[in-house]
Amino acid sequence: QVQLVESGGGLVQPGGSLRLSCAASGFTFSSYSMKWYRQAPGKERELVASISRVSGNTYDVESVKGRFTISRDDAKTTVYLQMNSLKPEDTAVYYCNALTYWGQGTQVTVSS
């Protein structure tokens, strides 16, 4: 069965960095685009970044441009989200997504 397992979240001070990982299994990873979403308390889930298959073209939502980088390693069937210059408004649960499948989420808290 399809599994998406996120890791790498935690508590970080403003201006700090975290790298999220999403280990995928149960489907042909290299054939699909991968996405990161986030959901802050009281807000709707929003797309943060996506990366296409093959070409690796990426898309980042405006609020994270220049700070977050999505990447993928097809050999390891893993997608990453490098988050730099974190802000308190980046606090959310971050989810990995492929097709209609979701991981369990990993909490990112940015606070001093």
What would you say this structure looks like, in words?
The chain is an all-beta fold. The chain has no helices and eleven strands. The strands form two sheets. Strands 2, 4, 5, 6, 9, 10 and 11 form a seven-stranded mixed sheet that branches. Strands 1-3-8-7 form a four-stranded antiparallel sheet, with no helix packed on it. The chain is globular. The termini are far apart.
Would you spell out the secondary-structure blueprint of this structure?
Blueprint: E1 3-7, E2 10-12, E3 18-25, E4 34-39, E5 46-51, E6 58-60, E7 68-73, E8 78-83, E9 92-98, E10 101-102, E11 106-110
Tags for this model:
single chain; mainly beta; 7-stranded mixed beta sheet; 4-stranded antiparallel beta sheet; 0% helix
Residues in β-strands, percent: over 45%
- One letter per element, helices H and strands E, the order comes to EEEEEEEEEEE
The helix content, as a percent range, equals under 10%
Which runs of at least 5 residues are low in confidence (pLDDT < 50)?
none
List the total number of helices. 0
| Strand count | 11
Q: Report the major sheet.
A: 7 strands, mixed
User: In whole angstroms, how far apart are the ends?
Assistant: 40 Å
Rg over CA atoms, rounded to whole Å, is: 13 Å
In short:
This protein is mainly beta and 112 residues long.
